[in-house]
Design a protein that fits this description.
four-stranded parallel β-sheet; 14 strands; about 10% strand; about 650 residues; 2 domains; alpha/beta; eight-stranded mixed β-barrel; EC 4.2.1.9; single chain; Glucose Oxidase, domain 1; 23 helices
């Protein structure tokens, strides 16, 4: 029999063994009263700390926990030993290391834990997307359990980025009310030179299938879109928007969002964040003092001002719920978006489509806030992890050397005027920037729908700011069927694609491969999309999502037929609009039976089915897809009592 490396390596070194070793030298720095009062767990924890190599003489230091979404195995020289799910979490271990060394230098003891996260870009168009949104709740629970499982920690530093890992971390930190907590955003990747950005590159397959690019072009562009190996994508999608929201909430240091991954300024943020956390602990400031109704308001204002991802309509209420605060409603979002102008020209919204790293150099979140302060839209008394109020942070920023030098750097590096990236309200209005999100009603969405109106192609919007579109419905019961129709050219300009059955009932997968294809294929801007699912933060176009009730809840969207006339009206200035089926018989669409295309998806796993049921009982997608423990426990109690009563037990 030939040698089988699965059974035998052939190495003699494996037989060099021992069963005992001396153990760590030294002694625990214990006093008599201290030892008498110690729990067995705390004492054994000290024993294990020494066993892991920590200097026993330094075990009386305060303990701080560093949590992250790190993924992959990265060699010290940066080469991959095992890949992560995405570039966003590939380098965040370097931030953890900087923070941990800072804690140690301050006489504290750092601990570290990890809950890695998936990549929405990697799972788009695959069965993996059915786990994406559900993962967020699971990860937040695990993060919180890890925090509570180190009972001696004095504060928590979260290091995270990307579409679900960062919202999960924010939910976990916001729910840790009695400890200080600081968020270190994982930063953004650089633009690649002479290459497509990470949003457009995802449409290569659709463009190739339609004969719009060559195979050689697709192969080259697909290889080189990432300008650096770490950081979130280059556009104001869910990952970047979540960083902005974290800073606006006061959980991240001023000018912490969107820093270039791997750069010294990015590492410096981790060190300063560790110092900030130790200072908060000394002063007795906890997350309860930071995450308040005022900070949630500021987060919603910044979301609108940067033209952020519609996914934050799911995540901000979830963060508020975790903190025990009132969840923002659709009416709250509509009110904020009506008041707050979009001030930032950034991918994917335009008009010039700057990258997120250029927004950072232009001044990032605090620069946007200076303009919002002038408009009276911020609650400046909100406390932040800097140890100062938001208003005090902005006073520092306005006269800081950091602001001046980084804005000059943008001019030097890219020849871009920072005031063309982050604008005053007047300048933004002159440049045609419209507000971010419009919430819709109509006979297809009795409980509401939304559209990222700032991302609708300007050439299809009238001089009055109104987008009008009426066309025949093309109904699809799956994302696979919809993308195949686009690739085959079977959907024509003027059509309205109606994608049904992908709402919260099956995990609410995002549909970026559809929306990105419509942006980048020829005449795609003249095709509209209506769905009960959600979109990637980088989605553009007349894409109407979150249609409620969803098809699986009996909503009228599940009863539309091919050829129905769909009328869309979106006022991008007044931020109001409708989505309707017109010209139907008496009784309307709601009186019909479901479209035969609405079929159960056998790929939906039991974990996601349970997530769907729990979040539905807790307020559904408009409530942030959270788990409301008290309501769920109450419903289960009544159901169990009713079952026992009916069975006579």
């Amino acid at each position: 029999m030939s040698h089988d490396p699965v059974f035998e390596s052939g190495s003699e070194a494996i037989y060099t063994l021992r069963t005992t070793a001396p153990g760590p030298s030294g002694r625990l720095p214990l006093g008599a009263e201290q030892l008498r009062a110690m729990s067995s767990g705390e004492l054994f924890g000290w024993t294990q700390n020494a066993g892991m190599g920590w200097d026993p003489a330094r075990l009386n230091g305060k303990q701080f926990l560093v949590l992250s979404t790190q993924g992959g195995i990265r060699a010290p020289d940066g080469t991959p030993i095992a890949l992560g799910y995405h570039t966003g979490h590939w380098e965040v271990g370097l931030l953890m290391e900087e923070a941990a060394r800072t804690f140690t230098a301050g006489g504290a003891i750092p601990f570290a834990g990890y809950v890695s996260d998936p990549c929405d870009g990697r799972t788009n168009g695959t069965v993996g997307m059915l786990d994406s949104l559900a993962y967020r709740n699971d990860a937040a629970i695990v993060f919180r359990r890890l925090i509570r499982s180190l009972p001696t920690r004095r504060g928590v530093l979260g290091v995270a980025t990307c579409d679900k890992g960062l919202p999960a971390m924010l939910m976990a930190l916001a729910g840790t009310l009695d400890l200080p907590a600081v968020l270190v955003p994982g930063g953004v990747t650089l633009l690649a030179e002479e290459a497509e950005d990470t949003a457009k590159v995802q449409t290569l397959a659709a463009r190739y299938a339609r004969g719009e690019v060559s195979l050689d072009y697709a192969a080259e562009m697909g290889c080189r879109a990432c300008g650096s190996p770490g950081g979130g994508c280059q556009f104001m999608g869910t990952a970047a928007t979540s960083q902005v929201v974290a800073e606006a909430l006061g959980l991240a240091l001023p000018h912490g969002a969107l820093s270039p991954s791997g750069a010294e300024i990015w590492r410096d943020l981790a060190r300063r964040s560790a110092h900030a956390l130790m200072a908060l602990e000394r002063r007795g400031v906890t997350t309860r003092d930071i995450v308040t109704d005022d900070s949630v308001h500021n987060a919603m204002v910044l979301h609108a001002a940067v033209g952020g991802s519609t996914n934050l309509v799911l995540h901000v209420p979830a963060i508020a719920h975790a903190a025990g605060l009132r969840r923002p409603t659709v009416d709250d979002w509509a009110r904020v978006n009506a008041l707050v102008p979009r001030l930032v020209d950034v991918l994917p919204n335009g008009p010039k489509h700057h990258a997120t790293v250029q927004v950072f150099l232009a001044g990032g979140v605090p620069e946007v806030m200076l303009h919002l302060r002038e408009l009276g839209l911020l609650r400046l008394g909100a406390r932040t992890v800097s140890g100062r109020t938001l208003g005090e942070n902005l006073e520092w920023w306005e006269r800081s050397e950091r602001r001046r030098r980084l804005r000059d750097k943008l001019r030097q590096l890219d020849g871009i005027d920072p005031d063309d990236v982050i604008m005053s309200a007047g300048k933004a209005r002159e440049r045609g920037l419209t507000s971010t999100v419009t919430f819709l009603r109509g006979n297809l969405a009795p409980e509401g729908a939304l559209v990222k109106s700032t991302a609708i192609a300007p050439q299809v919007i009238g001089p009055d700011g109104v987008y009008l579109h009426e066309g025949p419905a093309r109904v699809f019961g799956s994302e696979d069927a919809a993308i195949e129709a686009i690739k085959a050219g079977a959907v024509q300009p003027g059509d309205v694609m109606v994608l049904i059955g992908i709402g919260p009932g099956i995990g609410m997968p995002e549909t970026y491969q559809i929306t990105s294809a419509l942006k980048h294929v020829k005449e795609g801007h003249r095709i509209a999309l209506v769905t009960d699912g959600r979109f990637s933060g980088v989605s553009t176009g007349a894409c109407i999502g979150h249609v409620s009730p969803e098809a699986w809840a009996g909503g009228p969207i599940g009863r539309v037929r091919d050829g129905d006339r769909i009328r869309l009206r979106i006022d991008t200035r007044r931020l109001e609009g409708t989505v309707d089926v017109v010209g139907v018989e008496d009784g309307g669409v709601a009186a019909r039976s479901p479209n035969p295309a609405l079929q159960p998806d056998g790929r939906v796993n039991p974990d996601t089915r349970l997530w769907a049921a729990l979040q539905d009982a807790s307020g559904g997608s408009w409530g942030g897809c959270v788990y409301d423990a008290e309501r769920i426990i109450g419903l289960l109690g009544r159901a169990i009592a009713a079952e026992r009563s009916s069975s006579g037990t």
